[in-house]
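MODEL INPUT / OUTPUT PAIR
PAIR INDEX: 1
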Amino acid sequence: MKRSSDQPQTGLKLAMSAGLASVLVAGLLVALKLWAMAETGALSIAASLADSALDLMMSLGAAVAIVYAARPADEDHAFGHSSAEDLTALAQALFILISAGVIGWAAAQRLLAPAPPTLVSEGRGMLVMGISVVLTLALVWWQGRVAKATGSKVVAADRLHYLGDLLPSVGAIAALWVSSTWGIGSVDSVVALGAAGVLAFGALHIGKSAWDALMDRAADPEIQTGIAAIARDWPGVRGFHDLKTRTAGSRIFVNLHIELDGDQPLRDAHDIGAGLRRAILAAYPQTDVIIHKDVYHGQSQVLPGS
């Protein structure tokens, strides 16, 4: 069985693999779309290129944040550096929101223009955009697995970038195909408006999550209830109170007071607390648990956050 102490390192390796993959994919997409834009003159590809360039910049920032957030606690940061994830995710959400506004504005301007732009070499453009869709789908699949396994908000925010890329990329393919078939060049503007809406909604969701963590919001009620159930049923624990949690990045900090028989040896009391802590870490590897031991007096509060 994997020790709970191994979990942070495993999570870091997963998060770093997602960060490195996003940087490599973004760099490749920028190069491919730059060539395709020069070949076709398509504004839809130019917009997708700008989005990929932004993704590359944000992916580099995300990779740096993941490494910094994984640094161990020190004298100036007693609870570690995991809040760097929330700060980066908040900045990413802001950039995504701005990008959504720019994309939506540009799409509306194009729809209102007297004549759509003339596109050329549509076949080459469709080939490049098709390759970009395949690469993006592979990256999004891996980032989704990593975000679910680690709870990293940075990886989740970075994944949102690339999910947002899929719709404009498909829209660019559709625009190139329609242009080459019927000579209609405004289809991508309609798709771009939809993509802008999806980006804005996702950015608000990621931003709210990061903001809540920076404001020390409590962990999900389901996690609190699960921790309470483990403490309530743990052998030797007569009761517990003051179960408090807060989130920071992908970490959840837990403080819990347990009530024990005051007449038992100190070693036995220590073993009960240590065993309970290991059980909580095994059930919720993303937690950092501090347990305080009190003497049982016959009454206790067992509700989370009491």
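PAIR INDEX: 2
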Amino acid sequence: MLIGAHVSASGGVNKAVARAEEIGAECFQIFASSPRMWSAKPIDDKVAEKYHAEIERTGMGPTVLHGKYLVALGSSDPELLAKSETALQSDIAAANKLGALGVIFHPASHRGQGFDAIVDQFAASVRKILDNEPGDSLLMLETSAGAGDHIGSSFEELGTLVKAIGHDRVAVCLDTQHVWAAGYNIAAIDTLNAAIDEFDKEIGIDLLKSVHANDSMRELGSSVDRHDNIGEGLIGTEGFQTIMSHNVFKDVPFYLEVPGTGKSGPDKPNVDRLKAIRSQVGAR
């Protein structure tokens, strides 16, 4: 179980490695380009070489990329769908170049069409993206908090998408705050076990490839996406002890996406908190 965090790739992806090292992260997540703009430049060969050298120097664990917030594979707008496919394909190309574990992206919204109406389109888009960018990097669907028309707040919906896509480079990222907001009480052992059983039945536990580790500012079942620092939210330190002590997470990397103690994003205090919990529960 490696403890990582989202860090800035400003100035080049190679710069992200030292930033992760500085806060004690053992692996990290980055944006390959601005998450709020469609444009994206391919990673320069020299920058990629520096990145690989930095990874080798530090012995960092698996890198993941986070997809753009703009991506909407459930949209009925052909132009938006095409832009979304291009953006995700660009991210997968970047992930392959970096040898990253994969790209995590939000399934986003069905835009009022209803979930059943978008399944085939969503699946076809993902297959197209992966077929156009062969390699080892995965596309990981992230669990949703469930607000509005958002897709993937239930393991049943994610499992339906995964089965419809039918591709061996598709996996899932479990966001602790999102599943809590969606009504899965992962902070108590009995309900955590029930959630894991449901995940395995609907998706397959072998497809759980990453965790976004975030405490929650909002109550269980709120459907509101509001991250909090580890131990400061409603999942709490004891909740993370429960999560991290479960055998299903022992080989899955954790990536922090918390506000940070100084409100500047994931930081050393949060990394240290997760490491302390990992040590307490004997997860490493």
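PAIR 2 NOTE: Strands lie at 3-6, 27-30, 64-66, 102-105, 138-142, 170-175, 208-213, 215-216, 227-228, 254-256.
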